[in-house]
Amino acid sequence: MIRLQTAVIFVAISLLTACSGMRIVDSDVTAFSAWTAAPPVPGTRYRFERLPSQTLATEQDRIEAIATTSLSKVGMALSPADAGYSVQVLLSTDIVQRYREPGYGFGGFGGPGVSFGGGSMGTSIGLSFPIGLGESYYKRAVTLLVRDLSTQKVVFETRALHDGVWNDGFAVLPAMLDSALLGFPQPPTGTRRINAEIPR
């Protein structure tokens, strides 16, 4: 019996250790398609387009490098000189403060309090207030638009939303983009929750 219990504990610890090396990026994905041509064959060429606000953003280079990898998985190849499509990628991040408990905006437990204590060595008076500070919470949205350059029409639009306590946006962006392109160029209708694993 002892050996069996030891074996069960060992297996449980092994599973927990294995799981601790990965984390889940859960994205809510909504995509729309007006793709009337044949699905892209491997090597379908595209180029990136940027909004005026993105032209000087060095961060955009990094975003598009990650998008290039995700797009290659669905048959698209970056080739600005002879592109048949253009792609726009927009990433936004909102940082909010979350509090564990309501009241006073501090997240403490209960309201202020006063305590009196006495003993043989003296008397003490103490005041207590809720001082727990909130934690930063990151809400991210990535939008990807594909435009047919022959008609100048947007033929594919997708958006992935993810939120969490991790501040490493570029670590979760590949998973968000892969999720956003799932089913490209004819994705299911409606919003889908898609989970992807990344190293912790």
Could you characterize what this model shows?
With 200 residues, the protein is α+β, with helices and mostly antiparallel strands. 23% of the residues lie in helices and 42% in strands. The protein has three helices and nine strands; from the N terminus they run αββαββββββαβ. The strands form two sheets. It has a seven-stranded mixed beta sheet with strand order 3-2-4-7-8-1-9. A hairpin with a 2-residue loop joins β5 (113-119) and β6.
Helix-strand layout with pairing:
Layout: H1 2-20, E1 22-33, E2 44-48, H2 58-72, E3 76-78, E4 85-98, E5 113-119, E6 122-128, E7 135-148, E8 153-164, H3 169-180, E9 191-199
Parallel strand pairs: 2-3, 2-4
Antiparallel strand pairs: 1-8, 1-9, 4-7, 5-6, 7-8
Helix pairs in contact: 2-3
Order the strands across the largest sheet as they lie in space. 3-2-4-7-8-1-9
Number of strands: 9
Please report the number of helical segments.
3
Largest sheet: 7 strands, mixed
